[in-house]
Each structure stands twice: as structure tokens, then as C-alpha cells.
Task: structure prediction
Amino acid sequence: MRYTDSHKASTRQRIVDGAAAALRARGPAGVAVADLMRQAGLTHGGFYAHFPSKDALVAEAVGSAAEQSVRNLRTVVKRAGGKSALKAIADSYLSTAHRDQPERGCSLVALGAELARDSPAARRALTGQIEKLLGVLAEYVPDRRGVTRRRQAMATLACLVGALTLSRIADDPALSEEILDAARRHLAEAAR
Result:
């Protein structure tokens, strides 16, 4: 039986979405193609009708997760109300919910260190995410004399990613929360 193009595209997106969540939760080594296909309701053999390799799926899933991160930040800004956009971003990104749900969170934190040693396609996808997040942050960092918005966005992104990473590493809940709080406060002061 031959499927329509829209069915094939829908199936492919289901595989990519499942892979994006699984990769962020367990990393590339913890994700088997057979498991992803079973999760999507398909057989392992059907994988190659959609992707030439696992590396190709990883790159596409990382790209999809990056788009989700950008959409999430834009939603946070829209819902900020009277709060500054940068403070709203920091509060959301450096939240315990984001820390505790890596499968729904930023792939830079969940996968950055692993994919830095991975395929060029995966690294390109992460580089694309860095650029997109820098673009969003550059819209909201305060205007500072002698410092470009891009440079400020880089420092902000480094603070966000670093703090969330450290908070996930810490096995002491109090230390983990302290790291998130310190970074939120730092970014709130920087936003003034």
C-alpha cells in the first residue's frame, strides 16, 4: 500500500518529535532507532524510508528542538505582562520545571557536551540553535554603551545554559536551587 505524501510527512514529524524528546532525556547513546520507531507506532525497517541514518535523524531532531526553544522564549516574552522580557526569560529558563524536564527543555543544555563530539550535522544543528537564541536574546538585552547587543546576548545565553547545566548536575537540591536563584538574580540586575 502506498501512502500519501502528507501521511509520510506526518509520520516523519512524529518520529522527529519523539526523537527530540528522547534525545534530550537520554542523549544520543540512550536512544535506539528501534525504540523510536516503536514509539511512533512503526517498525524498525520503516526508519530508512524517512532518514538515511541515525545521524540524520539526530540533526533534524536537534533542529526541531531548537525551533521549539525559540517558540517557548517568544511565548514567555508575550506572557511577561509588566515584567521585563529578559527577567521573564530568565525566570522561565532557570525554573525548577525546566531543570526537571530535560525532555521538554533546551537541547543546548541536554545535549551540548555530547553533540560537541558528535557528527558535523548535529553540531551544525546546535550552532543554528545558538544563533537563533542569540537573536531572540539580542532583542531584549538592555542597550549598553560600548557593548553590542550580540555580545550581551552571548553572555546572557552563557549564563542561562551554564546555570541550568550546573543545577542539573548538582545532586544536592538546595545547591541546585541556589544556582538557579543566583543566575536569575544576576540576570535581573543585568537587565536594569
User: Anything to note?
Assistant: The domain at 53-190 is CATH 1.10.357.10 (Tetracycline Repressor; domain 2).
